Amino acid sequence: MDFQGLNELALKQATRLGAEDAIALTASGKQRMIRFANNSVTVVNHVEEAEMMVYVAKSKRRAIAATSNLDPANVRRFVSNLFSSLKGLAQSEYVPLPDKARKFSPNKAGFDRKLDQAGSELPELAKAAISASLKAGGKRSAGVIEASTSESTILTSSGTVGADAGTSIKLNIRSFAENDASGHGLSCSSTLADFDPESAGERAGADAKRMVKASEPEPGRYQVILSPEVASNLIESVSDAASAFSVDAGTSYLADKLGKKVAAASVSLTDHGWVKGGLGGRGFDDEGTPTQTTEIIRKGVLKSYLHNLTTAKKWRAPSTGSAGLVTPHPWNLEVGSGDATYDEMVKETKKGIILTSNWYTRFKNYRTGEFSTVPRDGAYLVEGGRVTKPLKGMRAGDDLQRMFSSVEMLSKQRDWVEWWEVSTPTLCPWILADGVKITRAYE
User: Fold this and answer.
1) Lowest mean pLDDT: which of 95-109, 223-237, 352-366, 402-416?
2) What is the distance, to the nearest Å, from the Cα of residue 133 to the centroid of all Cα atoms in its chain?
3) Is residue 269 domain-shared with residue 302, that is, in the same domain?
4) CB-hemisphere CA count at 13 Å for 157?
């Protein structure tokens, strides 16, 4: 399918109708999925999808919509209906697209041809993860491998044109030694060569074995050692709060804190439009602005919000290449590494809990950053620098600024994380924080 041709068709229709600004974006992708349960591959699936998003503006009125029906006649109707909807909209803060036209070429470094062509070997990778889990102590495993190729194209009424493509592969495996003794393993990569299903399976199986006869913890404040998976889930919430849209909407705990300390001095957080090894991102954002590297937090100090053209004008700041036509967002997050090993973090923990996985992070108050989350799978009590027993049936809670301000150690090792609890690819270390509230889940 000629996606750039469809963009031209949409822009021609919008211009003919009188749009002052218009953007056409197409996103297409193919996904090969391998699902397994009870130690056997159960589903092999291949899906290809495509979608177009169109933005039109006239007389300080703006409208955005998307369609997956890319028949040329439907694209014309779709743009006409979208433009007609402007009449019923109120005028809003309007920022014209930049006059300067840009041309973006695909970043070949973010595309792995071997992964793009992967097919018959994917079930064997699932079997390798299952085998590693069984060897480590898991008795049964379930999970999914997703190998994806994505392509994006853009055309704007100011003449900006571009295309980009990327690949990724992700494995989630959950293993059980008993009904309530489970472990979780994750491996994700932008290349087939860096994908490691055996390590993920081994982690899942080993944690499942260690979780046999787990008990509930005593409620209280603990040091917590967060795995990259758990830490990334909370870091993603920090990046959401760093969106200027969230600040303006009153749902960010980072409001009024530019230039102020919001985390421990050891904590730095950066967003990359594209970075080697990253699973997401591209060279242009949804407005045709070049993406970039943006320091959100540097050594504990909030340095920048994430901006599109509209929020940048309001804040008298440059766009960070983070559009979202409505909401600025991150592309690939990176948490700075520390100088500790995992074993050193355990030895420094006097009374703490290791959390390897979490589900259902929810916020009591977005404005203050108060959250709670449910630890799942491998969780362990640490006393006097030693792991003493497995734990289950608990909830962890805090507010984001207090918790990240209490960070005591970060690991040298960092892992890429993306799964159903972390939608923004994040390169993250293990993190040791103090004073996190632990309650029993069933109290």
Assistant:
1) 95-109
2) 26
3) yes
4) 21
